[in-house]
Amino acid sequence: MSPPAAAAVAAAAAGGGGGQPQRQQQQGGFGQSITGIIRIAVFWYFASKFFSPKKPVDPSNLISNLFQKGEPLDMWLYLSEHQRFNDFGNEASLVWHETNIPYATWGPESTRTLSLDYHPSDTLKNNGSLYAHVFFARSGYPPDPNDPEYQPQAAFGRTHPVVKYLPKSRSDKRKSLLGNSKDGEVFEPEPQVADDTEADSKDEGPVEWISYWKPNITINLVEDFTRYAHNAVPPNIAPYLNIDPSQGNYYPTISFNEFWLLRDKLIAINETVTVLPLNLEVGPISMMKWQLFMQIDQSFQIHRSYGSMVEGEADELKRVFLEGNPYLLVITMVVSLLHSVFDFLAFKNDIQFWNKNKSMEGLSAKSVVVSFLCQLIVFLYLLDNETSWMILASSGIGCCIEFWKIGKAMHIEVDRTGKIPMLRFRDRDSYASNKTKEYDDIAMKYLSYVLFLLVAGFSIYSLMYERHKSWYSWVLSSLTSCVYMFGFIMMCPQLFINYKLKSVAHLPWRQMTYKFLNTIIDDLFAFVIKMPTLHRLSVFRDDLIFLIYLYQRWVYPVDKKRINEFGFGGEDEQTPSDTGITTAKEDEKKTN
Question: Quick check: is 45 in a domain?
Answer without folding.
Answer: no
